[in-house]
Amino acid sequence: MASQYEEEMRKRAERARKLGLFRYEVIQDALDPALSAKQRGVLVREIAARTHAGPDGDPVQVARGTVDRWIRAWRVGGFEALVPNAVRVDPRTPAEVLELAAGLKRENPGRTAVQVARVLRAHSGWAPSERTLQRHFARLGLDRAQCSCL
Predict the structure, then answer these.
(1) Cα 116 from Cα 101, distance rounded (Å)
(2) Which of 11, 82, 95, 115 has its CA 20 to 30 Å from the CA of residue 65?
């Protein structure tokens, strides 16, 4: 069974691939090597003037400069160059601090993120923001909306 993080990364990769396919659909006619620079310029302006169905089906217009950038990217790296890089955000809050915060919340489910932050600050002189703690508790199912122990 995939963890929530792995599932989120899979969804992001799938979204990035859809975006790459959309970009290719937009520029595919302009990739013809038989086109002269003048013909390609006319075609790119036509592409930029159209409204396209975006990756999610919403109407999207693409600026001429963006079409040109996608064409250059295709020439350098093929399809993979059209797929945006997956954003990988490493947590800035140490795992030990988040574990301690979760332990404090489990110990007393009625504790708010503000109270947990106050305890952490008293214990170590530092605490993550209350909002960071709220998001962490929500991920673990320890927030008030999901906790059946209140």
Answers:
(1) 6
(2) 11
